[in-house]
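Predict fold of Spore coat protein; 62 aa.
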Amino acid sequence: MQEQLTQMELQSLRELISAHDLGAKKLQDYANQATDPQVKQMLQQSAQSAQNTKQKLMSFLQ
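Predicted 3D structure, encoded as tokens:
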């Protein structure tokens, strides 16, 4: 049996999802502009990590 989230928890979850979404987009933009291959790779990995966390957080909404 799945517990219901409180309104405060739901709002916090939405804010976290939004923050990770924005972070992933910014990191990917920075990666696209990077000229150093190591920096580009690090930024892409960080963007992917933020995206993965966003997806994991979204699973709590189901």
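Residues 35 and 54 are 27 Å apart (CA to CA).
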